[in-house]
Specification:
Layout (H helix, E strand, L loop, with lengths): L1 H67 L9 H69 L9
Helix pairs in contact: 1-2
Length: about 160
């Protein structure tokens, strides 16, 4: 009888140790995921900054070209008009890339936030389960100690 009670208590302690190990593993994994997310975000932010700088440079060049060929300036030729059209097209493409990069960055951040939330919920549930199990061990021990011995009574 005592061996069963001690076995249950040892099993409960083993479960607690396993949960603690799982908590440490999950915490380390979450910290690693967070660092990966931060590093990825930093790279994406730098890429967006680069695109923004290219955008500003292209706009400045476009303004220079347009000012040079306004009425009263140099005569417009087909080549200059083609060049201005190419610059505008490049500017539009750059703007589209910039918007797409910003959307992708936001999408990734939301996805990782959702993943962290789900993991946090699961971890909380497991902690609650282990806590409840840990709280029930003393009660089970008391019940086992106060229970009559198994077998036929000799009254």
């Amino acid at each position: 009888r005592w061996a069963g009670v001690v076995g249950k208590a040892a099993h409960g302690q083993q479960d607690i140790a396993e949960v603690r190990a799982a908590l440490q593993t999950a915490s380390a994994r979450h910290a690693s995921d967070l660092e990966t997310l931060r590093a990825g975000r930093a790279l994406e932010v730098e890429a967006v900054r680069g695109l923004a700088e290219e955008h500003a440079d292209t706009q400045a060049r476009l303004r220079l070209v347009e000012e040079a060929f306004r009425p009263g300036g140099l005569a417009r030729t087909q080549d200059v008009e083609d060049l201005a059209a190419q610059v505008r097209d490049s500017l539009l493409a750059l703007r589209a890339e910039h918007r797409q990069a910003a959307r992708e960055l936001e999408r990734r951040a939301i996805m990782l936030d959702d993943q962290l939330w789900v993991t946090d919920q699961r971890l909380g549930q497991r902690i609650d389960e282990v806590s409840q199990m840990h709280e029930s061990v003393p009660r089970l021990l008391c019940q086992a100690l106060s229970a009559p011995p198994p077998g036929p009574r000799l009254d």
